[in-house]
Task: structure prediction
Amino acid sequence: MELEERLNRVLQNSRIPQEENLFKNKEELANLRETQRLAKKALESSQNLTSLIYSTKEIEELQYTLNFYEARIQGMMDAVLENLKWYEDEGWKKFTDEDDAND
Result:
């Protein structure tokens, strides 16, 4: 995910209310804005740490592994949805009614 998208999502979830009267005083509002600014700066700075912790090759390997597992999960989800569709088309209610009658 791009840094800008992540920042927007973080900031979107911590919006400052437009009505300044929600705060007891302007100092509280200023503190909240400063906290948001610092959080944004910290997130931007943390992106630089990745290259210190992992080499470029390790990052590529991790990304490959992530993509591999995401593809497997997507395949499993598709199979489950396909099976559910089949049960729906076949009339899943018939299967459950027969099972209930046999009990």
Notes: The chain is about 80% helix and 0% strand.
